[in-house]
Amino acid sequence: MTSTIRTIFILIPALALTACAVPKVSEPETVAVRATSLNPSYSSVNAQILSDAGKIDSSFTASLAPGVGIQTLTRLQSSYTQQVGEDSLRLGDTVSSVGMWGTSVRYGGMQFGTRSETRADVIASNRMATAGMAVLPTVADALFASASDADTSLSQRNLSVARSLPAGGQSWNLAVQDALGHSQSIAAPMIARTRLVEEGCSDFSVGFGKVREDYALTSNAYGPMFANTTVACGAPLGFTIEGHGEYLADEVTALGFGVARQFGSLGTASVAFAQSNDVSGATGWMSKIGFDHSNSMFNLMVRSRFQSREFRDIGSMDVTDRIMQRDLASVGVNVSETASLSVAYATQTTWARERTNLIAVKQSMGVGRGTMSMSAGHSLEDNFGSSVFISYQRPFGGIKPWSRRVADEIEELDLHLPQAIGQSVEN
Fold first, then answer.
1. Positive/negative CA dihedral, 416, 177, 411, 328
2. How many degrees, rounded to 5, is the angle at CA 296 between CA 292 and CA 302?
3. pLDDT averaged over the chain?
4. How far is Cα 369 from Cα 400, in angstroms, rounded to an integer?
5. What is the pTM of this model?
6. Closest to 356 measured CA to CA, from 173, 122, 141, 137
7. Which of 94, 161, 282, 401 is the one with CA 20 to 30 A from 234?
8. Of the candidate ranges 35-39, 167-171, 223-227, the one whose mean pLDDT is the lowest
9. How far apart are CA 371 and CA 407, in angstroms?
10. Is a pLDDT exceeding 60 seen at residue 177?
11. CA-to-CA distance for 229 and 208, rounded, in angstroms?
């Protein structure tokens, strides 16, 4: 019975797509080549062919060191994207969608729908080499991994976070080191805002194919069959109802739903629930609750996650000590027109009773024609300490940095872990 359900879960999206008429591709109009990184030891190049009907996209890395040769060329991703009305059809390499819960995975195959971007808190750099299955971590995953020596989803893929650096707006600027030892600065928020949709079920993404393995380490390594579906519908009374499912052949199946609603000026509340079944027959559950509030004086974002010991998702299948509870909170206060104060707190407890607590405070104010910022981070664990970072930014131009500031903007903060001080970041 379980095998039949899995087969239906994969085949229904494919059968539905056979009814879609793909318009004839017109002649190419633009060819664009861009080097995102260029140095003798590691270079990344992206090439695109653009037209009114679609886009061909390909990227690769190579070493330009003398005497190395073309054998160092590694394909990152190749895809063809076609617009079908308001929807997008992507063939080739892509990233799976997630909603209020779920795991983003790189895979090769087909993706169809309106959701073409990953959730804001997912670290989706296309140059980040990962060992094993190409699972994309979140900013929260990276922060907890940087403050713990335990077995994590990042360590399973030879990823590490060297340090976090200050960033404007709602972003954390992380220095992530990949499986090749290359470091890059990645900015993303710790908490993604709750997504609300209008009435109807026009917000969706359906995909299936084979999951990527050893991404950026080898050119054409693909693993087991993978399927992913996310559908968000706007229901009466202002509710957004979301369904999400993930399937990895001979490993795990997870299905769940989420509900969100904005309650006037009070804020937006959300709740999600999911159930997983792995290859051994074990069944687990996971639940998430969240709340967002925003006004001209302050912003508040809170997320809490609870799960059973048996819950499995694609990103934690190989982790021995899984999450039991994770809480994230961020508060930003506009003290004046040119000053703001932010506080961020993150705590996590695993089923082995390993507890991690991180707290940070950041204050920014306009000083002259520039901006002075001070960040103070502290880990409540015995083997980590505190740190302070002070910076001053001044533009070379006629625009004052605070003249474009949005009044209700939160500035999330950065935790500068003491063991990372002095490490360098490659660009």
1. negative
2. 20
3. 78
4. 6
5. 0.78
6. 141
7. 94
8. 167-171
9. 16
10. yes
11. 9
